[in-house]
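Co-fold these.
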Amino acid sequence: MATLGDLERTVMDLLWAAPEALTANELRDAIAEAPSGEVGRELAVTTVLTVLSRLEKKGLVERERDSRPHRYRSVTSREDHTAELMHEVLVTAPDREAVLARFIGSVSEAEAETLRKLLGGS
Amino acid sequence: MATLGDLERTVMDLLWAAPEALTANELRDAIAEAPSGEVGRELAVTTVLTVLSRLEKKGLVERERDSRPHRYRSVTSREDHTAELMHEVLVTAPDREAVLARFIGSVSEAEAETLRKLLGGS
DNA sequence: CGAAACTTCTACATGCCGTAGAAGAAGTTC
DNA sequence: GAACTTCTTCTACGGCATGTAGAAGTTTCG
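Predicted complex below.
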């Protein structure tokens, strides 16, 4: 499974939110002024690069190696990634139907409505 | 989040499968003859006890302290736990509806059918 | 070419997990 | 109740993931 640490998560959040691929420096600055984090985290750029390398190794991030300040982007959207994770969790249980039953009970009415629409056809 | 290691997972699987609370020794034996694992793992009982303590600290397991060989049981069913995990994953994303849309696409037809039934009314 | 920017390598601390011995507590047997 | 057995708790160590970053090597720009 691909479990992320806090900093890794922060970096992914920024990459997912960004419309374009970002450089390590841009990420460093974004983390510093992070509205999500509490204290201003002044990280060294190498720290960010290390995290990005690890995320790349995990297949979550890819980089443009040709453009000189390498630019990093997420491989999948946050939604795809999250949905994939949910599915991975689901299949760990033998009785998936029972899990889904509980799961349905935990979502909001709005979400249930969404599901109904999505499942409508077929 | 409550991410489990391999041994922790094995122990939880056994506790979830057991109809009654188990002692550390029973668990040790069950792990040794584990049909799930590959090689026979002859663990020391203290190892199992340590794992159980950690699981207890995580709130996944509780024990009967009065009965002398303490007996351990899972606090929640595997289905509840799994559904809870799925929900935790879901809420990490801001756009839950988009996540659900992707998620629906990843489940089997049988599971989709189950969901339709569960969502049926209202 | 020389400085500035960037990347890669290497490293260390911390925390979680697998694993278990040593020591202490409790129940069991004559 | 003293010795023996059985359990539990404490402590510990090695490995791996992660946060963090300096040192050294590479590329770019003026």
